[in-house]
Amino acid sequence: MVAIVLGSNLTPDLRADPKLSRLVTDGRGSLAFIIGNSACRQRLLGSSIHWDRVLLAFEDGQPVGYAAFKHHLRGPFALRSLPFIREFGWLNGRLRFAAFCLSEWREWRYPFLLYGLRVSKSARNHGIATALLQACSERATAHNFKCVYLEVPLGNDRARHLYLQNGFSLLRRRWVPWPPVRSMRRCVESAS
User: For residue 117, what pLDDT is reported?
Assistant: First the structure.
């Protein structure tokens, strides 16, 4: 049985579990050239998660997936330079932190953005991604947003197909080639 839970509704003990933060921080793998491998991403971002911006999927009590979102100038991670400076040194840390911030800030043009979605390989094809997408749409509706936006890498046909099956439509290609993504949108029902 699958349960979708808003991260801020978990007990502090559960939120402190390194497995949960690793699940969420691993989702920024597309930025590995800026924020390093899985262990490095955990050190940089693991203690700065805004749990009220993360939906977690549990199957038989085990965390198997997450969806993170951004709205009202706040996403799933607090932007802090000190972990980057500690990890990479004063100059390289500041440069990597600036690049990470640019990546984060360019996404603020979307009113409500599905920031990341990931399901463990062992739990795929169980309907978990669809349940997370539905829960994310419900969060958008609860905050009176009309649409959920996302960006999907151009080469990720599997993800694009999943989003199309769940009511998202492709938007026009952007004229800026970096990062190589395609924007998608799903309109949601109003809460009022």
Answer: 96
Contact between 28 and 35 (Cβ < 8 Å) = yes
Name the helix (H) or strand (E) containing 3: strand 2-6
* Sequence letter at residue 102: L
Quick one: pLDDT at residue 190?
66
Judge whether 63 and 19 are in contact, CB under 8 Å: yes
**Is 112 within 8 Å of 168 (Cβ atoms)?**
no
Instruction: List the alpha helices (DSSP H) in the chain.
Output: 12-15, 18-25, 32-35, 38-45, 82-88, 90-105, 128-142, 157-165
Kindly list the structural domains of the chain, giving each domain's residue range(s) and its CATH number in brackets, ordered by start. Answer: 2-187 (3.40.630.30)
Inter-residue contact 73 to 108 (CB < 8 Å): yes
Two tokens, residue 138:
């419900």
Sign of the C-alpha dihedral computed for residues 101, 38, 121 and 61 taken in this order: negative
- pTM of the model as a whole: 0.93
Residue 125 neighbours by CB under 8 Å, 6+ apart:
none
Give the span between the Cα atoms of 47 and 49, in whole angstroms. 6
Rounded to a whole number of angstroms, the CA Rg of the chain reads 16
For the chain (length 192 residues), average pLDDT per consecutive 10? 96 92 84 88 93 97 96 93 96 95 86 96 94 98 96 91 97 68 89 56
